[in-house]
Amino acid sequence: MNDVDWQSATTREAGASRYLLRAQVHLANYKALRQPGGYGRFGPPQALYITPAASPRFLGPLVLLTSDQTASAAEDLTISLAQRPEVTLVGTATKGMFSDMYSVHLPNGLNVTLSNQRYTTPTGQVLEDVGVAPDVPIENTPTTLQQGQDPVLQKALEVARQKVRP
C-alpha cells in the first residue's frame, strides 16, 4: 500500500511509477501547454509514456491512498498509476493541481506564478481542478479521527487483503 496524501512522490512526470509497471510501455496521460490568445487556448496534447524500469520493480497489486491533499508530483504519480488494472485508488479525489507553474517577474518586483498546462487522462477527461477520482471512495471525518479511527486506512487494508487473497 502506498500513501500519496502529502506529495510523497518526489519525481515529476510520474517517474516513480516506472518501478511499479509491468513489461510494457504505458500511456500515463496527456498535457497541453496554454497558448497566447485566450485563457482556454492550448497547444496540441503531448502524450506522456512511462517505460518500466529494468529492475527492481514491484509487480503485485497496489492500493494507493488518495485525498484532496494529493497534489503536484504526487498527483502525477497517481494519474499514471490510476490507469493500471493492478492499482486500486482508495480515499477521495485528488486536488486537481497538476500543472507546472509559469513564473513571471514583474517590473515592480513582484513574482507571479500561473498555471499553464492542462492534464487529461488517456480517454480525454480533463483533470485540472477536478482531480483523479478514487476507485473506492471513502473519507475520514474529524469525528472518526478524534475517536482514533481511520476509515480510509481500514478500507485500504481490506482492499489489499482481498487483492492478495482473492
Shape assignment: globular
| Unreliable parts | 1-11
Q: Give the overall pLDDT as a whole number.
A: 85
Rg (C-alpha, Å): 18 Å
The helicity comes to 10-25%
**SS-derived structural category:** alpha/beta
Beta-strand percentage range: 15-25%
Number of strands: 9
What strand line-up does the widest sheet have? 1-4-5-9
Report on the biggest sheet. 4 strands, parallel
Distance between the termini: 17 Å
- The total count of helices amounts to 3
H/E element string?
Answer: EEEEHEEEEEHH
Outline of this structure?
This protein is of the alpha/beta class and 166 residues long. Helix content is 17%, strand content 25%.
Task: Give structural attributes.
about 170 residues, alpha/beta, 4-stranded parallel β-sheet, 3-stranded antiparallel β-sheet, globular
Describe this structure in words.
There is one protein chain. This protein is of the alpha/beta class and 166 residues long. It is built from three helices and nine strands. It has helices at residues 73-82, 142-146, 151-164; strands spanning 2-3, 26-33, 46-50, 62-66, 87-91, 101-105, 111-115, 117-120, 136-137. The protein has a four-stranded parallel beta sheet with strand order 1-4-5-9, sandwiched between helices. Strands 3-2-8 form a three-stranded antiparallel beta sheet. A hairpin with a 5-residue loop joins strand 6 (101-105) and strand 7 (111-115). The longest helix is centred in the C-terminal third of the chain and has 14 residues, at 151-164. It is globular. The protein starts with a strand and ends with a helix.
